[in-house]
């Protein structure tokens, strides 16, 4: 038995048209990429795959992704002029199409971002009705849907870093809903992805940021639905 | 606590509790979300406000969409009413025009309320807002009708689907038309049984509708289909108000819709691989657009 939907899923969402998957979902992919980077990119290359590559102009998928990178939500009318908005905000944008890989979802985009001297790529798919899933951060395979607050923590693969971070969350009574710890190779760079129940307090965030061998800590807030 | 899982539940509860469909929908929403009745009514009012704005913006739209496949047709309809009396009367004329206006706004990256989807977003606002004005009903009546329509959408979502990729256009414009027919019957003063007959008649007459959009874009045949299905909803409400019943009850029509969607080839479910999307003209348009 399917769950009873809310009235406002039926009469809603309020969104910029024309397509929940190709427009609203694309905005959300952009918003997630921005949140994972932790700031507005200074430049972004959007690599569009499958149906996104074929129909992005007619559906405004390109503008929707750019709008998301600028922090616009799905109902923000500035999305229609997102390229001009990006120019004004000092964000360079390039659009490419490519076959990313054979089994990628047809509505997939890889967003290659730069902010100052940092580079980060985020890959995700719009899987229907405006729902999205982020499948890759750089070369790390992840699974983020924007449903829960999530910490993205690039760090050095050293003894005790993971334990330290999780003990900070425990001390602040923040419950971990799911967690993955990924690394390139032993002793090199690694990535923690931690989804939590409820909110992450500013104090907890600061303590994690101050942890030795943690490079950065990004808090990705849940998407509005 | 009150719960409904079918149209049969809804009619029984309405009779037993002396409540409207809208009351029950609001009570369940309130229980599920912990929001007050007033907060839920306010959120619906704001959705209706955005619907009204989308009609106004769509009416004013003169340019074609990015693809050039849609835009400006609502304006053509409006202009035609100045030269001759509308064949179907003013209400039907304005309703089809406003459904088209919202669908065209949607295609041109305008702000709309998905109801239940973006591709079918013109039907419900056009029917509800024009009929409210035509019958000189109050804002409270309009809000009630919107919750009645939501109840129909909830049942279709729960027992079938509201996704074109899963159920074809019967799940989008078909569902929107059933919701709009229910809202229209409500605005005309119908009881729960009559409202469900209106919804059943509209959905029944939408069964088998495929989703075969030209070049994969939400424009052809989607925009004009919104106009057709808005008037279609008025026809269903008119019949139900005359006491005409759907031989097949609403719950069974929804089951039939689910089965029809499952039996429909995936080539006819939003993939643009068959039907209108593969006609020579559509293929030429798609190739032209791909060249940029």
- Which whole number gives the mean pLDDT of chain B? 96
CATH C-level name of chain B: Mainly Alpha
> What percent of the residues of chain B sit in helical stretches (DSSP H or I)?
55-70%
Integer tally of domains of chain B: 1
Structural class estimated from helices and strands of chain A: alpha+beta
Biggest beta sheet attributes of chain B? none
Largest sheet of chain A: 6 strands, mixed
Biggest chain pair interface: A-B, 36 and 53 residues
Give the distance, in angstroms, between the N- and C-terminal Cα atoms of chain A: 22 Å
Low-confidence stretches of chain B: none
> How many domains in all of chain A?
2
Strand content of chain B: under 5%
Topology of chain B as a string of helices (H) and strands (E):
HHHHHEHHHHHHHH
Describe the structure.
The complex is a heterodimer of chains A (225) and B (292). With 225 residues, chain A is α+β, with helices and mostly antiparallel strands. Chain A is built from 7 helices and 11 strands. In chain A, the strands form 2 sheets. Chain A has a 6-stranded mixed beta sheet. In chain A, strand 4 (107-115) and strand 5 form a beta hairpin. The radius of gyration of chain A is 18 Å and the shape is globular. By secondary structure, chain B is an all-alpha fold. Chain B has one domain: 2-methylcitrate dehydratase PrpD, CATH 1.10.4100. The longest helix of chain B has 24 residues, at 37-60. Chains A and B meet through helix 1, strand 1, helix 2 and helix 3 of A and helix 2, helix 3, helix 5, strand 1 and helix 7 of B.
């Amino acid at each position: 038995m399917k769950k009873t939907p809310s009235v406002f899923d039926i009469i809603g969402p309020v969104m910029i048209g024309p397509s929940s998957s190709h427009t609203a979902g694309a905005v959300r992919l952009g918003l997630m990429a921005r949140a994972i980077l932790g700031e507005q990119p200074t430049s972004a290359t959007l690599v569009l795959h499958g149906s996104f590559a074929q129909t992005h102009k007619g559906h405004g998928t390109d503008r929707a992704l750019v709008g998301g990178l600028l922090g616009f939500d799905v109902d923000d009318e500035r999305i229609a002029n997102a390229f001009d908005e990006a120019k004004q905000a000092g964000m360079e944008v390039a659009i490419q199409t490519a076959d990313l890989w054979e089994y990628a979802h047809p509505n997939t985009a890889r967003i290659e971002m730069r902010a100052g001297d940092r580079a980060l790529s985020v890959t995700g798919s719009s899987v229907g009705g405006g729902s999205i899933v982020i499948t890759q951060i750089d070369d790390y395979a992840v699974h983020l849907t924007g449903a829960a607050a999530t910490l993205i923590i690039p760090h050095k693969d050293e003894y005790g870093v993971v334990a330290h971070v999780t003990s900070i969350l425990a001390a602040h009574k923040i419950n971990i809903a799911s967690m993955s710890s990924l690394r390139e190779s032993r002793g090199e760079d690694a990535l923690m992805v931690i989804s939590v129940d409820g909110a992450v307090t500013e104090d907890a965030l600061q303590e994690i940021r101050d942890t030795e061998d943690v490079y950065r800590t990004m808090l990705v807030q849940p998407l509005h639905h | 606590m009150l719960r409904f899982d079918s149209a049969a539940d809804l009619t029984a509860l309405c009779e037993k509790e002396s409540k409207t469909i809208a009351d029950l929908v609001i009570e369940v929403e309130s229980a599920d979300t912990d929001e007050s009745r007033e907060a839920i009514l306010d959120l619906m009012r704001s959705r209706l406000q955005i619907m009204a704005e989308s009609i106004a913006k769509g009416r004013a739209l003169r340019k074609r969409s990015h693809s050039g496949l849609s835009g400006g047709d609502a304006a053509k309809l409006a202009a035609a009413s100045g030269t001759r009396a509308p064949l179907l009367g003013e209400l039907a004329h304005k309703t089809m025009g406003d459904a088209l206006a919202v669908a065209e706004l949607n295609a041109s990256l305008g702000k709309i309320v998905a109801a239940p989807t973006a591709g079918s977003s013109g039907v419900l606002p056009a029917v509800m807002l024009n009929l409210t004005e035509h019958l000189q009903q109050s804002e409270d009546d309009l809000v009630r009708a919107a919750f009645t329509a939501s109840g129909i959408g909830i049942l279709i979502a729960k027992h079938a689907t509201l996704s074109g990729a899963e159920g074809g256009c019967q799940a989008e414009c078909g569902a929107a038309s059933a919701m709009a027919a229910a809202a229209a019957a409500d605005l005309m003063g119908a009881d729960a049984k009559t409202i469900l007959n209106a919804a059943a008649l509209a959905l029944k007459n939408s069964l088998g509708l495929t989703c075969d959009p030209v070049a994969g874009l939400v424009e052809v045949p989607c925009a004009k289909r919104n106009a057709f299905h808005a008037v279609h909803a008025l026809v269903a409400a008119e019949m139900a108000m005359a006491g005409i019943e759907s031989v097949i009850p609403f719950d069974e029509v929804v089951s039939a819709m689910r089965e029809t969607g499952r039996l429909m080839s995936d080539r006819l479910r939003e993939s643009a691989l068959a039907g209108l999307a593969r006609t020579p003209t559509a293929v030429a348009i798609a190739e032209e657009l791909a060249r940029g």
